[in-house]
Amino acid sequence: MDSPQDWEGLYRSAVPRVYRALLATLRDPMLAEDALHDAFAQGLRRPPAHGENLPGWLFRVALRRARRRRWPFSALPAAVRASTDELALALDRLEAGRLLALLTERQRALVVAHYYLGLTHAEAAALFGVRPGTVSATIAQSLARMRKGASHAL
What we know:
Layout: H1 4-26, H2 29-45, H3 54-68, H4 78-94, H5 96-101, H6 105-115, H7 121-128, H8 132-153
């Protein structure tokens, strides 16, 4: 990303997807929104390495920012908010939100990165600074916990 125009294009294309991934992980719309804006600001100041998976990079940076609980940016466009309302309804209907809530933040982040953002275990490992085996084990433990939670609801 060399210019602000490149970042604007990335913003338009990646925000809805990355925001929904953050929302599913953090379970707090305001925190997810602010963390995402903060990640974009970080990218403008210090762009990621060339060839980096940019949605994955934004997701990782935003998660780190969310842990610091910073709140300095303005609201997302209404169209993005409307799509998150649809997501919230879908999560409620499918109970995926309830099952994701059973997981720790780290487990949710890895599950969402893998299944929603489509990152491979190796890509997720590189983004989160862990080994691919750790990603595999964490996702397996997460799925087991979600299955157990689903069976208790019956």
